[in-house]
Amino acid sequence: MRFSLIPADTNIRNLYHKIKESSVNGRWEEVFFHYREIKRVGVQPIDHSIFPHTLKACCALPYTLGKSVHVSLLKQGFESFSSVGNSLMHFYAKSGELASALDVFNCMKMKDSVSWNIILQAHLDEGAFQEACDLFIQARAFRFEPNISNLVLIVQAYRRVGAFIDGEGFHGYLIQSGLWSLTSVQNSLLGLYTDISMEYAEKLFHEMYEKDVISWSVMVGGYVHSYEPIFALETFKQMVTDFGVEADGQTMLTCIAICDVDSAATAFREITHRNIISWNSLLSGFVHNEKHGEALTLFAFNEEVRS
């Protein structure tokens, strides 16, 4: 029987293509199968760009497979490529191996913004908030540009460790870098300031050009934790009545938690625009506080309004 002979380099190129195609389509087992095919024929991969795809696949496969890929690329010296180092860090971070991710990061000669974002995210995901804050200070010396997700998380890290002075300094950095206008970032800073002083939080809140339901909820929650129920209720009413922002369940339950249910019900009756979330939240509040008669009355009133 005669077999058609295909040049080895053609086979390898085809396997490179298959690895990348399978990765794009999320077929992780196929990615590793094609990678093993390259190893099986005794050819060392010469295209470093296949390693990010292979390591991404390893995040969804047994941990030992990723470790074997790491050993292979070290032997070939591919760890010097930023894209490969970043992929290694991402693999270890997703595997919960923060120490290994940090080892890779420290050994990288060339770090880009992706590198810093990955290692910061890894620390934040593991709850290493103080270390994340320290890393961010280091990163700024390298002109690091954090992504939006990490901006929010960094503010939350400052809040978790009580580093309020550093948090205020970060506020200044955001203004200087032009990232201050992002609503999600402003909301995170707002939460930080509610822990420092509601006076600071109010000032920031009034400076915000765009306020969403999260912004209002943070302020309501801030007043709640500051034991200022009247301000919490007034802010809630202003939110739904004056600005027409639909209250979510969390905001309603926050009001119920600090006031009594009767006060929350009074605030609810003064709301001109009620939605299904506000109805259900107040109903849940009545039930949770064992005010079953009021819950039934509210339910009947809701049915009457809808009919």
UniProtKB/TrEMBL annotation:
Entry superkingdom: Eukaryota
GO molecular-function terms, A-Z: RNA binding
PPR repeat start and end residues: 112-146
InterPro entries: PPR_At4g14850-like_plant, PPR_rpt, TPR-like_helical_dom_sf
Entry keyword set: Repeat
GO biological process annotation, one example: RNA modification
Protein name (record): Pentatricopeptide repeat-containing protein
